[in-house]
Amino acid sequence: MNDTTALTAPRRSRRDALILFLFAAIGTAVLSFVFHLTEETIIQREDEEKLRIVDQILPREVYDNRVLRDWIKIPPDRDLLKTNEITKVYRARKSGQPAAVLLEAVGPNGYGGKIRLILAIAADGELLGTRVLAHNETVGWGDYIEAHKNKWINIFSHTSLERYKAKDWQVKKDGGRFDYVTRSTISARAVVAAAHRALQYYDQNKEKLFVQHH
Amino acid sequence: MSMIRGLWRENAALVQLLGLCPMLAISNTLVNAVCMGLATTLVLAFSNLAVSLVRNKVPHEIRIPVFVLLIAVLVTIIQLLMNAYAHPVYVVLGIFVPLIVTNCLLLGRAEAFAARHSPGAALLDGIGMGLGLTFVLALVGAARELLGNGTLFANIHLALGAQAKDWVWQVFPSKFALPIAALPAGGFIVLALLIALKNALDAKGQRGATADAEHIAVPSA
Q1: Do the domain assignments include residue B56?
Q2: Closest Cα partner for A184 from A131, A148, A146, A127?
Q3: How far is CA B193 from CA B108, B139, B186, in A?
Q4: Which residues span the domain enclosing B210?
Q5: Rounded to an integer, what distance in angstroms lies between the CA atom of residue B113 and that of residue B122?
Q6: In Å, how far from its chain's centre is CA A8?
């Protein structure tokens, strides 16, 4: 440490401020350099990451556009999607015609709070598949909703509002048509209800969701 | 010598009890724990080096903000690099990578060691402390994964690529596992057991040393 007693207080403050500023400026410069160096790779990795999930629920033959580049933002929807923030809807098209959407929805009433889902819904309203993006269900109990732990989440493939009536959209225990894992019913209940509401949201908003530009 | 100190006698996790946030949050599997430990080691080594290099240029009054700034810059660099070149690991570690900034171990070593020693010694201290933390994280991670999941090396393909996918070792069927071990409570329990074990080993070593000393020394009245 330098001997600082020789300087008067105001001069010392000015010098300290200058030193801090210099460190901040150098730090910012270094960071912006590394940021630009890595920016493109990071975007590429993030797209790959998203596509890995997309490929699980939306078959490639359904669409021919760059689905991650075709999106609109939709406002929070507290009724059906239970989202509190603006979310992105990705649109899959085949020969320019609407093929499917990727929609985020929230099941607010999981055992550990919110369960965030992504759903692929075909243009005709068929639910192609869904995956859990984030959840706080108990490890070893409610986490069977994750695709890599259990096949359960696949029960939503090829369901739709047409094929499943309102009362079918419940777990079997409650009189519906969906399986669940005994002792962790709450997790399944939350996901089933969220998927049901998301389909209703799509049904009510499908024209708006495929609007061309964003 | 400065490396041995971090690995055992002043181990960050077992003795200084610093850096426990990643310890409990991310040590639910061996692979997560080691990745987190290595990321922290990298930051710690460079932050110690950087702090030591500027130690004579920073006035005493503003040393803490400057150290925090240096640490934050380094963590952000590591975060960007991991995001770009070790993306799967980055996704798993998530928020805990940027949270390395708040790991008291970093500022602790900057203030207690790096600011008073030469760059070379500071770098070695950082590596030693980091590896000591990684070692304990790995033990906790292995114990929690084994008890909580019945496996070892789960998710190893995230760190080493798809060809490592079959390296996961299912030691016993997961239906016999204790889910609590994978929860944060399990982290506390395993860490407590490790601290107890280290204390027992140290006490035994000391008793041995005292016994030897008594053997040689003239018994006092």
Answers
A1: yes
A2: A146
A3: 25, 11, 11
A4: 2-216
A5: 7
A6: 56
Place of tokens 């995230």: B158
SS3 at position A105: strand
- What is the Cα–Cα distance from B5 to B125, expressed in whole angstroms? 8
Res B219 pLDDT > 80 = no
Residue B130 clears pLDDT 90, i.e. is over it = yes
**Cα–Cα dist B88/B84, whole Å:** 10
The total number of structural domains that make up chain B: 1
* A100-107 mean pLDDT: 95
Using CB atoms within 10 Å of the CB of residue A95, give its burial: 0 to 12 exposed, 13 to 18 middle, 19+ buried: exposed
Q: Kindly tell me the sign of the dihedral angle through the C-alpha atoms of A135, A140, A141, A144.
A: positive
Residue B51 in domain: yes
Instruction: Please indicate, yes or no, if residue B49 is contained in any of the structural domains.
Output: yes
- Assess contact for A133 and A116: CB atoms under 8 A: yes
The DSSP H or E segment spanning A75 is none
Q: Kindly calculate the radius of gyration of chain A based on its CA atoms and give it in whole angstroms.
A: 24
For range A176-200, the mean pLDDT = 94
Name the residue of chain A whose CA is nearest to B88's CA. A49
Which chain A positions have a beta carbon within 8 Å of B58's beta carbon? 1, 19
A16 interaction partners in chain B (CB closer than 8 Å): 59, 61-62
**How many angstroms from the chain centroid is the CA of residue A61?**
23
The answer to whether A15 and B57 have CB atoms below 8 angstroms apart is no
How far apart CA B44 and CA A46 sit, in angstroms, is 27
Q: Is A56 helix (H, G, I), strand (E, B) or coil?
A: helix
CB spacing of B59 vs A138 below 8 angstroms:
no
A35, A104 contact by CB (below 8 A): no
Q: Which residues pair with A107 in a beta bridge?
A: A115
| Residue B42 maps to a domain | yes
Whether the per-residue pLDDT at B48 is higher than 80: the answer is: yes
**Mutant choice from B27, B58, B176 vs A, greatest count of A C-beta within 10 A:** B58
- Which residues in chain A touch residue B28, judged by CB atoms under 8 angstroms apart? 139
Query: Does position B170 have pLDDT exceeding 90, yes or no?
Result: no
Considering the entire predicted model, what is its pTM?
Answer: 0.71
Q: How far off is chain A from B195, nearest CA to CA, in Å?
A: 26
Q: What is the pLDDT of residue A128?
A: 96
